[in-house]
Structures are given as structure tokens and as C-alpha cells.
Amino acid sequence: MCKFAGSMITMNRYPACSITHLLVFILLSLAASKGVAQVFITSNLPIVIISTGNVPIPDEPKIPGTMKIIDNGPGQVNHVTDSGNVYTGNIGIEVRGHFSSIFPQKPYAVETRDAGQNELNVPLFGFPEEHEWVLLANYNDKVFMRNVLAFKLFNETGHYASRTRFCEVMVNGSYQGIYIFGEKIKRDNGRVDIAKLEPNENAGEPMTGGYIFKLDYWDWTNSWQSNFHPIGHPNFDVHYVYEYPKSENITPQQKTYIKSYVNAFESALYDPYVHDSTAGYFRYMDMNSFIDYFLVNEVSRNNDGFKKSFFMYKNRDGLDKRINLGPVWDFDWAWKNIDECYIFAHTDGSGWAYQVNDCYPDVHSPGWHIRLLQDTIFANALKCRYEQLRNNILNTDTLFSWIDTTVAFLWEAQQRHYERWPILGLNVGAPVVGPIPTTFEGEIQDFKNWILLRMNWLDANMPGHCNNYAPVTPAEYKPSVQLFPNPATDYLFIELPAFSPVATVYLSNIEGRRIDPPVSFDGNLFTIDVSGLAPGIYLAALVDSGRRTTYMKFVISR
Question: So what's the pLDDT on residue 7?
């Protein structure tokens, strides 16, 4: 995607700007020039007032400023002159986002700071205290709720999603419209609650987590390349971006571990015996998160959900050794028909977002769900979960009731928003297919109609069967020893399940000659340095306390 900064288009490391993107940029500039300056005094929404002393806010780095947040509570009126009863203090602020940063209404990343410009953790809006926050703009979402609804659904299925609040924002004395104030995705006890990974934790069980990684725009310094190509697209490379620890902080040993673990999962997933879930891919993944992530992104037919802003994480082994999908993120291109490719342009509610590689996107999807849906165990579990959720949180009456309540809450503010940004009736964001409503009421009706079409299509086309299907719970899976990566290059990892009788490990070549490379062990993880061994076939000998030996074959390849 192109990178836009102010009124200049820059290429950076992103794919070249298309004619469509250039036309969108021109239309946005014309629409913004027609905005009306307003006198903003009161709101029923929380008010966020930001000042940088009229210094323009850059794409990066963050510049210092101040922020006041006013929220007098439900049903109360907030005045711009009120004291900041949620927050009054210092911040760092920068423009965030990729394509969304071209819009006249800018999205921001905000860091709360103390008087010395150091990070300051605070519990804004009653959210768990932190110092990193986002202000998501709504220029590309004329109903204001595409992101919020998706986050709500993922949270209601039992997973963490960013907490949010609608608000109205002023920047340097200028009214900027309706925003979504929310939590940035990051590792923390109140957010992605996984173990903290320190730079000195480079061996044994501490090195096994936690990690957050994602599919997104990448370069060779912030990512690693998968050993596998997506099904049906053998020329597509897939890159996983380091999110936590960041690429500048993660150590070589930690890089090797997470890359090897994901490779082990993909090796099992693409194994011919994919149906053998207990012994194969399933021990590497949390099925519930894979199913619920799929459903939220397919209900919204999110064109980004399986290729970009696609987050996943792995905790420390002693807490949960499985890969989890989520949190969900980035739905401003979802819940509508967009002229990006045939899948997302369908106006009858049809099309599978997980097949996005067929659109030849700028960021390639790993296509994991294509393989997963070839497994009847996964497909049947998906079908059962979908039918369960259709009776409650995915019931259209439930969805429409929430939408109506949100419309009432935003009714007053949306009038000011569209005076500031007079874009109703204009195709200025994601290239929408079909007529563009000229009123907020028309946008809401379009939104509901789209959801109804989509749910009806999913009802008729969701894979799997749920006749007397009883999903297997994690407690029923038989834990097993895991050896990865295979093939190995520099390090070989052997993870043991809890209470394993294995006491020691050694290696031998295929002729049976014992080899003793450097081995470390911490809790349940053997880390073996095989960098000094020649390429070839080897055996790992696992010796238990009764001196019984089990052999596992692996390959060293460079």
C-alpha cells in the first residue's frame, strides 16, 4: 500500500502507489477542502482535547503535547471548558496507520507521559492502566462502528479485544470529529496477557514465551519468511512480523525459537495425515481462537483479516504452549462491498475472505484455514460453533439492537462530524461498490442490509456438519514430545509434556554412533546446538528414568 505523508506521496518500503490510490488521494483532498470550521462546545460523548502548540503532528516520531479527556458519565453533558476528569497531562503523539493515514481525519498513536516525558501508566476510562493508546479515525467508516462491533464480537466469544470508547476530538483548537479511543495491541496483563520475555531469557522454558507476531507490511529486518507457500499459490512467500519482542529487541535465540515453533506447526498442518489432529497440527494451536477469529473476520468479510493486521501470539509453555489467533484488528474495509477484487465486490453477501490470496494481495496470507477446512474435525467444530453463536451474539436481532442503541448515542455527534467532513454520498475511502447513501440514516440501513445478506449466505454455506458432534476439550488431548524444527539448521528443540519421565537426551547418527553436542535443559525444554554437525539424518534418543529409550528421527539441512 502507498505511504502518504501530508500532501506528499512517498514510496518507502511499501508497494508502488496505484492509479486508484492516487485518485482516492485527490478525492480526499477535494472533500477535505470543503469542510466547515465549527464552534464545538458540548457533547454527550467524551471529549478529547489535544494540543501540540500548533506544531504539525508527524507520521513519526512522536512529538510532545498535552491531552485533556472529559467524561462526566452516562447521560451527562460534557463541556470543552470542563476539567479533565479522565486525564489531564502530557503525551507523545504521532500519526499512525498506513492507508488510513492519507485521510484528512488523521488517526493517532498516543503515549501518556509524566512531567519528565517518561512513559506514564494510567487507567483511562477505567481500562487497565497503560501508557500506549490509539485514536482511530472514522473517515473510512461512515457508520463509525465497524471496528467497535468486530472487537465486541471477538470479546464476547471469550477472547481479548481492545477496549474502546467513542469520543469527539479537538486538535490544536480545531474540531476533528468522532473518533474511537482504544487500547493499542501489546503484551500486558490487561491486554494480550502472556508472559514477559526478557532479553536474557535465551534458553529453556523461559525462552518459550511470550511472543506476539503478525501478518502485515514487512521488510527483511522486522520479519522472518515461512518455509511454506500457501496452498494454490506456490510462488507466494509469507512473512511473519515480530510484534513482541520488537525486531530491535528480540534476540537471535528467541528468533530461532519462535520461527522454529511456527515451522513445526506448519509442518504438522501440511502433513498428509492432517486428519490425525491429536498427533498432528492441533497440539500446536488453540482451536477455539482459530475458529472464533475465522468467524469474526468472515461475518464481516474482512479483506484484511487473513493477510494484514493479522495478530497471533504464543505464551510460555508452562502457561499455554499453543499458538492463539488474535486479537482482531482493522475492520474499516470490512462489512461492505468494495471494488478491490471479485471476492469482496459481491453484492449478494457471498465470498470467503480467507481465500484472499486468490486476489493476489500486496501482503500474502499463509492460508492456514484452507488446509484446516480439509480436516473434518476442524470443519465440524467450526459449524457447531457458528450455530451456537447464531443463537446469541450473531443473531441479527441482537446485532441490530446494538446498532440502534449506538446510533442513538452518536446521533448528535454525527451531525457535527459530517459538517466537518462533508463526505456523505461520496466514495472517498475504501472503493465501495454500488450507490453511496447521502444520509447517515441511509448508511445505517445499508450496514444492516449488508449484515442480513451476509448472515443468510453464511447460514447456507458454512462448512462442516454438526449432527451430534461433541467437540474434544483440550484436557482430552494426549500431550506428546515435540521435536522441532525438522529439518534443523543451528538449534534443535525438544519439548516435553508435563510430568514426562524423560530424564536425558543424546543424539546419534543414522549408523548409531553417539554424538554429544552442547545441550541445555530447563524445565521441559531441551535446546541442542547442532550448528557443528554435518547435514544428514540423525536420531534423538530420549532416555527416561527407567533407562528406556525412545528414538525420534530428524534431519539437519543447510
Answer: 35
Domain count, the chain: 2
Residue 365: count other Cβ atoms within 10 Å of its Cβ: 25
From 155, 183, 211, the end of a domain falls on 183
**Angle in degrees, CA 276, 383, 194, rounded to 5:** 70
At 198, the pLDDT band (50, 70, 90 cuts) reads very high
pLDDT of residue 101: 86
Tell me if 72 is assigned to some domain.
Answer: yes
Whether residue 283 contacts residue 314, with contact meaning beta carbons closer than 8 Å, is answered with: no
Domain interval for residue 62:
3-183
Last residue of a domain, one of 150, 183, 216: 183
d(CA 131, CA 122): 6
Separation between Cα atoms, residue 252 and residue 381, nearest integer Å: 38
Residue 387 lies in a domain: no
Instruction: State the Cα–Cα distance between residues 511 and 494, nearest whole angstrom.
Output: 21
Mean pLDDT of 65-71: 98
Count of beta carbons in the 10 Å neighbourhood of residue 218: 21
Region of 187 (left: φ > 0; alpha: ψ -120 to 50; beta: rest) is beta
Q: What is the share, in percent, of the chain residues with pLDDT greater than 70?
A: 89
| CB neighbours of residue 15 within 10 Å | 14
Query: Does some domain include residue 293?
Result: no
pLDDT tens digits, one per residue of 28-48 = 445 454 556 678 999 999 999
Residues 93-119 pLDDT 10s = 999 988 888 999 999 999 999 999 999
Query: pLDDT tens for residues 442-491?
Result: 999 999 999 999 999 999 999 999 976 555 444 444 456 888 888 888 88
Taking alpha carbons only, the member of 117, 241, 113, 131 closest to residue 184 is 131
Task: Say if residues 423 and 329 touch (Cβ distance below 8 Å).
Answer: no
DSSP letters, 174-209, are: EEEEEEEEEEPP-BSTTSB------TT--STGGGG-
Q: Which three cell numbers stand for residue 273?
A: 495425515
CATH number, position 520: 2.60.40.1930
374 domain-assigned: no
Q: Where are the alpha helices (DSSP H) in 276-319?
A: 287-299
Residue 320 and residue 547: Cα distance in Å, rounded? 29
Supply the pTM of this predicted model: 0.84
Count H helices and E strands in the chain, helices first: 9, 24
The DSSP-derived string for 319-365 is: T--SEEE------TT-SS-BBTBHHHH-SSS---GGGGGGG--SS--
- Would you call 397 exposed, middle or buried from its count of C-beta atoms within 10 A (0-12, 13-18, 19+)? exposed
> Closest Cα to residue 451, out of 336, 296, 305, 306?
336
